[in-house]
């Protein structure tokens, strides 16, 4: 049984821009395709017609389990980093997931379980706001470009001092200041983690609270520090096996957000950023099921089973929530895992066909269909939290009129995009939240869809009526010139944008053009805080998580203008308050039902506002050779190997049939 | 001017040329929209504007471009090629590690080009306007026209997947100069050398055909020398002057071809590194690879000039 009904997501890259749906973190629930196991939503047999790809798992009886063997994984990019706080690419995270573990783990439905922590308790929740920390803040004078030179991790910056000019006084809460606040009882949430005794690292060192604290210290000023210290206030050791972590404000996501990204040995936690790397002479040491062996940079990385894995030493039955079958093993059974680094999709696909690798991901829709039709391979998949969305320029006339934005939303042919462009390897987004996040994101997904689906259906007739009303009111003479923008290095996405542009043209009210940009250029362009004022419609992909907030906040909260990913410059106080009311506050932190009700309201209001048009949710797929058995598909790319190889929370175990 | 002075003069020109190349590349990279910090912001959505500014400061991206260039140049002169933004890894280490892989591939491509171009060029010239000549010219035209990446994929498909004569991916656990690796290099070598082979073959054919019409050839025939001796001993040597020159100049095309070929064949050289650096806007890596390949091309041109002068004593160095 899970600890409770809270949900968790991968710690790394909670939200990330996607160059291509299905490439980065992606989330989904088995059987959450609106009651249809075939994500294509049709009966043409494009998927799921041969029994190999009609579920996220390849179920095989445990009696057939085979121990040993090597799993050869084809990955599309180099393992650039073995240092979780100082990396952001998915391949590095994938590698790290075999080596490092966290205090908690999650099943494929997002339920949170104790892992390196034997249990945790939410000790206290207080109704505090960020401004309540003002008495504890230190003051600094802003230098050039508004930069501060305190050289420490900022925990909180005063809301009024967010964008200072040179010479301004800036109030900041630093870590030591946070200690004073906590001592006075000023904090949002206090969670106490009880570390599991007897867990050892690959080098034999025992896990204690000291490791957790040192690991959290490593996050300070790291690449992911911004993601952590937007939630975390403070952390401290209570005793050798107990740690307290404090959230800044009452946060319904605290249990998911607070545990550190991975737990390190004290020695490695203190290494300079970038030095936790075999290329620097420091092989990564974690508590995880696999041990790093050796690597050839940009060519391959080898891992082998951790023979002293703590679960194996203690027995899986020692984990109090585990209630799986007696024959479920005490650890992974695949002896070795090797990453073969093959950037080119076509070459990676050929390597799979030539039996040079056993599994890969990130292939195009048409290639997936070829593999799916083959008897020598299987494709497992789940719906993801990766989504592709459009944002019209809400602050530019006439797009500031909600009716025109709603009309645009009715001109996005979601079904056609999912079926024709993605060959069924995606699902139309008739509501803003995919199956994986519906557990805490709505009281009734079907009711929500019934209410808002008309806003998201392809309906040129309704669109035409709305556009006519707006054009009449504004005195606009058709056609209105509109530029749609997208990154060029994703053919599917470009085709999607062209399809939408064509639908707009067909109304007779628009004259459209499609501009494409190389990915890095495009990111720089859309991250410009002024981008929303240019009057273009942008299209980009983003990855959400089990957290329903990730499908609303990033796109609509004013703090995400000029960041990821409120590209249109949506800045409405009522939207900010609505979003915050669903996640922050003692009421929603303590009452999941209230939280669901709030999200129902959030999604209904945002659909009406039509500031974003989410077109599709992607799928996370793995293409496997038939020698890989009992593979279970985890919805996030970063953890799909560690989950399939050994995950007692879902009683999953993969093996090599040799 | 003596040959030595000529070489010295050309060597001195290397530095201003490299300076020009570095300035132009640096400017182009910086003028391209988007930057590494924006990419990081995209991946770290909770980054505050202050943290974003701190990153710009850390990498010196807020400084005027000329200052950034001077800093980069100063570092280069001390052997510091900079670091990767994404991983903090040392660019110089990566570049020197990858360079032998690209050199090995280049040598294979070059050897393939010469091995194909010279015999087929001779054959086409000797059998000018016959069927064999037409076939050779057609193949040469095809070789020039076929894109590298397409040819590479076709070779993988045919010889890797269907015939299974080669592995699809490099046997990367073998040392670079092991028999297995050198055998694997055949396909990428063919891919990278095909266009050069075609271009060289056409030059060879034209050059040979010209020589064959010269008076000394007619005189040799009149003396009763065997055709084989005339072609291989006299005509070939004179024809090779332009071929050697062109062959050296084709180094540039082999280097540029390596970018795509390494990517398709999963060959871990500088070309593949360059693509990834461009995608990620890794300025230091782009600059380092440009500098090294620029140097290689300049040296190849220098060798071509010297070879031309050595092979044809009539050429003056002024």
Describe this protein with a few key phrases:
heterodimer; A: 658 residues; alpha+beta; twelve-stranded mixed sheet; four-stranded antiparallel sheet; 21 helices; 23 strands; 27% helix; globular; disordered N terminus; B: 318 residues; mainly alpha; 14 helices
Could you characterize the architecture of this molecule?
The complex is a heterodimer of chains A (658) and B (318). Chain A has 658 residues and is an alpha+beta fold. Chain A is 27% helix and 21% strand. Chain A has 21 helices and 23 strands. In chain A, the strands form five sheets. In chain A, strands 1, 2, 12, 13, 14, 15, 16, 17, 18, 19, 20 and 21 form a twelve-stranded mixed sheet that branches. In chain A, strands 5-9-11-10 form a four-stranded antiparallel sheet. In chain A, a hairpin with a 3-residue loop joins strand 12 (290-296) and strand 13 (300-305). Chain A is globular. The relative contact order of chain A is 0.18. Chain B is 77% helix and 0% strand. Chain B has helices at 3-31, 36-43, 49-58, 65-77, 91-126, 131-145, 148-162, 179-184, 186-212, 215-222, 227-249, 251-264, 270-280, 283-311. Chain B contains 14 helices and no strands. Chain B is globular and about 85 Å long. The mean pLDDT of chain B is 85. In chain B, helix 9 (186-212) packs across helix 11 and helix 11 (227-249) packs antiparallel against helix 14 (283-311). With 318 residues, chain B is mainly alpha-helical. The longest helix of chain B is centred in the middle third of the chain and has 36 residues, at 91-126. Classes of the chains: A alpha+beta (658), B mainly alpha (318).
